[in-house]
Write a structure and sequence with these properties.
By secondary structure, the chain is mostly beta strands. The protein has strands spanning 2-7, 10-12, 18-26, 30-39, 46-51, 57-59, 67-72, 77-82, 91-100, 108-111, 115-119.
Amino acid sequence: QVQLVESGGGLVQPGGSLRLSCAASGNIFSLGAMAWYRQRPEKQRELVAAITNSGSTHYGASVKGRFTISRDNAKSTAYLQMNSLKFEDTAVYYCAVEATLRAGVPTSNYWGQGTQVTVSS
């Protein structure tokens, strides 16, 4: 099994900051890329940021320069530091990971339950 535990969501004022965490656990043989997606009201789910197991990162255009993704491989945890938050950042944020459950089995993607981030004055 793979379980993703997200934390750090909540209510914040415009211009404020939040830090999301995603801890992966379970029978994980190997953990690959980790990413954050978000679902904004009336919008398609979009990739926010991704990081490979070697540390390479990718950011969506809407958050580049404001958000930073990182990971701690020893803890199998990904983080999303969100700064200069805007009203449009209000969304449900989902953690996704690429993992292999056992040797010889192709990798699969796993999703967290999502955590609400609300930016409001």
